[in-house]
Amino acid sequence: MKQTRTFLISILMLPLLAGTLHAQVQHEQLVWSDEFNSTSSPTPPNSSNWTFETGGNGWGNHELETYCAYDSSQPPCDAAKPNAFVGGDGYLHIVARSDAQGQYTSARLKSEGLQSFQYGRIESRIKVPKGQGFWPAFWMLGDSETTAHWPACGELDIMENIGKEPATIHGSIHGIGFIGTPISLTYTLPKQQAFGDDFHIFGLIWSPGKIQYYVDDPANIYASFTPADLPKNAVWPFDNGKFFFLLNFAIGGDWPGNPDAASKFPQDMLVDYVRVYAMSKK
User: Fold this and answer.
1) Which is catalytic among the residues 28, 65, 155, 165?
2) Residue 34: CB partners within 8 Å, gap ≥ 6?
3) What is the Cα–Cα distance from 90 to 104, expressed in whole angstroms?
């Protein structure tokens, strides 16, 4: 009887719970987005929102790719085959390529100096690539990166996936005192599933003194961080100002390892949108 009563109470409470959820939604306002819509393909990403970081210096992780701008023709980049473009399908394509000489190219986009935000709910709908040595990421850095520099500026890794862990994504935070031992948690799909099988939403709920990451639904929070979670003498940098976005697709490196014979090229990281919601006071 106890279980029956609990079930009946739960059923009776559904309208109330639904009303509460609706009220929470009403307290959010979309303040910015890039929907990556285009009537033709390929077109460059919106220059009001995105710039390119370029080069092939390993990026501190012994990565193998050279990041190319949209119209770069400096080898190994090929302007006829852009590594990042908006397609007529409504997606941002970040494309990793391998040429006949075994050189890898890809793209790394950032909104630095163009779009930056602090607090609210932030999410992107992404289909990650599948294969050994692939390392797609959706993340943020503090605007103070050019003055205070990393790691003092802070880093929010909303989604990182490596090819040898097809069912797992990592959500991490970095700052002074938590670099080599980052604060990180994972989310793993049920068995026989991989993130590269379909699109998924990767999100951040950010409020003063609190970082939360979710997958697919804001109610599906898998990681929550506060200053109390930091090591001794570490510095919490996430209440000091705005942060900008980065979207990139790395190849190889210390963490994912190198591609192998089964890694297929070209390979796309597809981004449906990036959205920012302000959360007003109730």
Assistant:
1) 155
2) 45, 46, 49, 50, 92, 273, 274
3) 25
Main-chain dihedrals φ then ψ at residue 248, nearest 5 degrees: -150, 165
Q: Is 145 a catalytic residue?
A: no
Domain 30-279 has CATH 2.60.120.200: yes
pLDDT, tens only, 176-231: 999 876 689 999 998 889 999 999 999 999 999 999 999 999 999 999 999 999 99
**Cis check: omega of the bond before 82, within 30 degrees of 0:** no
Per-domain residue ranges of the chain? 30-279
**Active site (annotated) includes residue 28:** no
**What secondary structure does DSSP assign to 203-232, as a single string?**
EEEEETTEEEEEESSTT-EEEEE-GGGSPT
pTM value surpassing 0.85: yes
- Give the model confidence (pLDDT) of 35-86 as tens digits: 999 988 899 999 999 999 999 989 999 999 999 999 999 999 999 999 999 9
Least Cα distance to 45 among 21, 66, 69 occurs for 69
